[in-house]
């Protein structure tokens, strides 16, 4: 148990040991989640607020379920429809919330860096549930857990991340995590969807899917983020699917036991062929969802421990937090 | 079948040579140079006249679809063969434009009517509207050799940046029309004494420089492969030079009309001399001839633009721009040779070798192994151009009744004689 930070804002500040300890703890929650009685008490009596400034169903319910199974009082605030519309600034929202004394804040925001800004202003632990094109740490951790369980290890693997890289916080968090764990990461997609200077990020950049997938252990497909596009990145979905959509022929270039991942929600027939997504021998997409709850439980458990330790320490110094 | 061209003055733009030679052709390809004629070969006695690689004319407009009354693939093909053009590189600015794999498929099928090779460029954006890029990968797979919206400049730099970035990923060539679109809107002449005296709406030659500089900045940003369709002013040469020195993958072309005519040729509002961009000052024309000689301008083309009589029988600024050129490209280019500005290897480097190389085509050479796309011509035969004798359906040439020199004797495509 080494993860000592107050917040989980990104993968960048984590050490390989931090990552391993979160994944190890998550394993125990995978077991718990498969039982009929799924309750633990790590967050007993604590208040968890989910603030989603961007619409989300999957991630928000995953965090909600994780909090409830750990015994927290969970409140969801659909910020996309709330006071933000009335003109409140992010910092004012944070101060308002702070006065309610939450213990865990789970935040998603359409602007990169917004979650970091919020974390500076509140007195509780903050979990980044995705900020703009920046990071989505719990997604990378759940992907790592899925890979580790499926491949038996999380190092010296060849991982191809394919599709809409430029708009993807999932890709950023994943390539950082996989790099820290000493894997070979390849990025593949149309040049318009590749971030500038991708080659300087310690990854290999490919245009051609067949080359990118050649000998890969893991194929990670990304969603074409139409909602983040202001038009004109690709000429059409049919051309995109033809060149960069994962189908059986392209997948045949990867290792025979390569797994297929997708953070969801999928655009079938755009970035992935439906039959590949449904192939139980290759696709681990459903496993990713399951690991998501366990990883979020582990992350919140650790942050809660750190918070208690910090508050305990301060209380013993006579400081009221 | 074996063909043996004997006693030729062989123009080799690749080697830069102009000397007596022989060529042997079998199964459509050149198999030997300066060898004895093989057993059973058909011998063509060139009688000391010029044998050069056929012209690869980059930027031909055919009226299919939409304006077949102006030019069909059959009529353009006949004009090409008669003019020594063995490959036509077709513009996509038809009605509707060639901007999808389906529309490309249509013109590829129609092009079977032409007796010469036909290559197609695709539009760069859908409907040439400058908003959304075309399906470049599909079009490339279907044979598009380059992407261009022609004279319609993509003014939204974000759209053009995306197009260039996407094209770089596919290693596709983008052809730009360097012109500042707002300044040049409605202009029919280059700014100067002539336009002022005649009261023609004009544009500064620097609008070309501005357009080129913008495009080159985007090329530097995206590292795309880029060709400027027409560079016609001396002011645009220094940035072109700098871009190349910086290692950018950039080439440039010019029309034969801008090399052989100037602003004063318009004379009494003669609409057959209306071009986009407009004919330039004599100083610019001379600088451009020198730029071709120096290899700074890579490609000379006809920019063959058929217009019917009604499109030209209008006040100067309202008349449709452009001229037919497939059949006049060679004699007009020979003016530059006779005046001493350019050698024959230099001319054929710009008309045959360079365009083929830039478009990744096998032709444009007289090397062993190259396709036997050849033109045999006498550079000296004088004649007076009669526009009604042109093979094109449209007769809009600025060289009508002009004294010219140079007669095509024969044209071969893949070893098959298509003219003469």
Automatic annotation (TrEMBL), chain A:
E.C. code: 2.1.3.2
Superkingdom to which the source organism belongs: Bacteria
Positions of carbamoyl phosphate binding: 58-59, 108, 136, 139, 264-265
Enzyme class of the recorded protein, top EC level: transferase
Keywords: Pyrimidine biosynthesis, Transferase
GO biological process terms held by the UniProt record: 'de novo' pyrimidine nucleobase biosynthetic process; 'de novo' UMP biosynthetic process; amino acid metabolic process
Residue sites binding L-aspartate per the record: 86, 169, 223
GO cellular component: cytosol
Entry similarity comment: Belongs to the aspartate/ornithine carbamoyltransferase superfamily. ATCase family.
Subunit note: Heterododecamer (2C3:3R2) of six catalytic PyrB chains organized as two trimers (C3), and six regulatory PyrI chains organized as three dimers (R2).
Protein name, as recorded: Aspartate carbamoyltransferase
Protein species of origin: Paracoccus isoporae
Automatic annotation (TrEMBL), chain B:
The keyword Transmembrane helix is assigned to this record: no
Domain Amidohydrolase-related, first and last residues per copy: 334-417
InterPro entries per record: Amidohydro-rel, DHOase, DHOase/Allantoinase_Hydrolase, DHOase_cat, Metal-dep_hydrolase_composite, Metal_Hydrolase
Keyword Ligase in annotation: no
Residue ranges occupied by any Dihydroorotase catalytic domain in the UniProt entry: 48-233
Keywords, in A-Z order: Pyrimidine biosynthesis
Superkingdom, taxonomy of origin: Bacteria
Cellular component GO terms, alphabetical: cytoplasm
GO molecular function, one term: metal ion binding
GO process terms (BP): purine nucleobase catabolic process; pyrimidine nucleotide biosynthetic process
PANTHER family the UniProt entry points to: ALLANTOINASE (PTHR43668)
Name of the featured protein: Dihydroorotase
């Amino acid at each position: 148990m080494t993860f000592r930070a107050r917040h989980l804002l990104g993968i960048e500040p984590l050490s390989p040991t931090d990552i391993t300890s979160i994944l190890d703890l998550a394993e125990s929650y995978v077991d718990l989640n498969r039982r009929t009685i799924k309750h633990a008490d790590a967050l007993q009596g604590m208040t968890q607020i989910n603030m989603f400034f961007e619409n989300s169903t999957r991630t928000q319910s995953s965090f909600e379920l994780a909090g409830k199974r750990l015994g927290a009082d969970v409140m969801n605030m659909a910020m996309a429809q709330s006071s933000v519309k009335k003109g409140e600034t992010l910092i004012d929202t944070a101060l308002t919330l702070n006065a309610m004394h939450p213990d865990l804040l789970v935040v998603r925001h359409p602007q990169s860096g917004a979650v970091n800004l919020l974390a500076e202003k509140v007195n509780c632990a903050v979990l980044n549930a995705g900020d703009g094109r920046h990071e989505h740490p719990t997604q990378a951790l759940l992907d790592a857990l899925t890979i580790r369980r499926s491949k038996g290890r999380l190092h010296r693997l060849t991982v191809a991340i394919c599709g809409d890289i430029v708009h993807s916080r999932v890709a950023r968090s994943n390539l950082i995590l996989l790099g820290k764990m000493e894997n070979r990461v390849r990025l593949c997609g149309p040049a318009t969807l590749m971030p500038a200077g991708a080659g300087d990020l310690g990854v290999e950049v490919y245009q051609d899917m067949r080359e990118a997938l050649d000998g890969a252990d893991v194929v990670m497909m990304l969603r074409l983020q139409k909602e983040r596009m202001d038009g004109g990145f690709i000429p059409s979905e049919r051309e995109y699917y033809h060149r960069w959509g994962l189908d059986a022929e392209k997948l045949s270039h990867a290792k025979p036991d390569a797994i297929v991942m997708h953070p969801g929600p999928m655009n079938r027939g755009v970035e992935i062929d439906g039959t590949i997504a449904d192939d139980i021998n290759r696709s681990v997409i459903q496993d990713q969802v399951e690991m998501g709850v366990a990883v979020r439980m582990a992350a919140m458990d650790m942050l809660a421990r750190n918070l208690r330790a910090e508050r305990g320490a301060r209380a013993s110094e006579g400081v009221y937090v | 079948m074996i063909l043996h061209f004997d006693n030729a003055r062989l123009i080799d733009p690749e080697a830069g040579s102009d000397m007596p030679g022989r060529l042997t052709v079998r199964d459509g390809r050149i198999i030997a140079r300066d060898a004895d004629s093989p057993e059973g070969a058909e011998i063509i006695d060139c009688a000391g006249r010029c044998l050069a690689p056929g012209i690869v004319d980059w930027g031909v407009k055919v009226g299919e679809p939409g304006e077949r009354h102006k030019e069909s693939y059959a009529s353009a093909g006949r004009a090409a063969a008669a003019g020594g053009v063995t490959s036509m590189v077709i513009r996509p600015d038809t009605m509707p434009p060639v901007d999808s794999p389906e529309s490309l498929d249509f013109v590829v099928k129609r092009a079977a009517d032409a007796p010469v090779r036909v290559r197609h460029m695709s539009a760069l954006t859908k409907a040439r509207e400058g908003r959304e890029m075309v399906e470049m990968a599909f079009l490339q797979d279907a044979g598009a050799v380059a992407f261009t919206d022609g004279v319609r400049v993509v003014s939204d730099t974000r759209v053009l940046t995306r197009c260039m970035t996407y094209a770089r990923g596919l290693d596709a060539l983008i052809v730009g029309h360097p012109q500042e679109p707002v300044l040049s809107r409605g202009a029919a002449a280059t700014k100067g004494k002539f336009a002022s005296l005649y009261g023609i709406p004009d544009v500064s030659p620097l609008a070309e420089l501005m357009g080129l500089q913008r495009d080159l900045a985007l090329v530097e940003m995206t590292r795309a492969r880029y060709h400027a369709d027409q560079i016609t002013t001396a002011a645009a040469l220094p940035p072109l030079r700098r871009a190349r020195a910086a290692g950018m993958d950039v080439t440039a072309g010019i029309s034969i009309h801008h090399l052989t005519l100037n602003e004063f040729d318009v004379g009494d509002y003669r609409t057959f001399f209306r071009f986009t961009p407009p004919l330039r000052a004599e100083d610019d024309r001379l600088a451009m001839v020198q730029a071709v000689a120096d290899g700074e301008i890579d490609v000379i083309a006809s920019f063959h633009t058929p217009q019917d009589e009604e499109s030209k029988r209008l006040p100067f600024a309202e008349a449709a721009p452009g001229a037919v050129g497939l059949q006049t490209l060679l004699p007009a280019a020979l003016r530059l040779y006779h005046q001493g500005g350019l050698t024959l290897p230099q001319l054929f480097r710009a008309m045959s070798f360079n365009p083929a190389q830039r478009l990744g085509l096998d032709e444009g050479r007289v090397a062993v192994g190259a396709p036997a796309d050849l033109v045999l011509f006498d550079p000296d035969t004088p004649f007076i151009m009669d526009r009604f004798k042109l093979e094109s359906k449209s007769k809009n040439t600025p060289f009508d009744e002009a004294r010219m020199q140079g007669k095509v004797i024969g044209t071969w495509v893949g070893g098959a004689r298509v003219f003469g």
